[in-house]
Amino acid sequence: MKVGGNGSATDFFTRHGGASLLNDSDIKRKYTSRVAELYKEELARRVKEDVAQCASLHIFASASL
After folding, report:
1. pLDDT per residue as tens digits for the range 30-40
2. Structurally, how many domains does the chain consist of?
């Protein structure tokens, strides 16, 4: 995945005190935890940055034609 993925999620959970959730069999607890909410916010921020960057590159490439 471009701005997320399993490795990114694992790293984020580990850095933010959610490592124990990674092996938790209660999926609801994992995906509704505070760390998961923070990760969702982080992903939204990354997507917004990526969209802005791609739009800038597209505009620049179009102008070069």
Report:
1. 999 999 999 99
2. 1
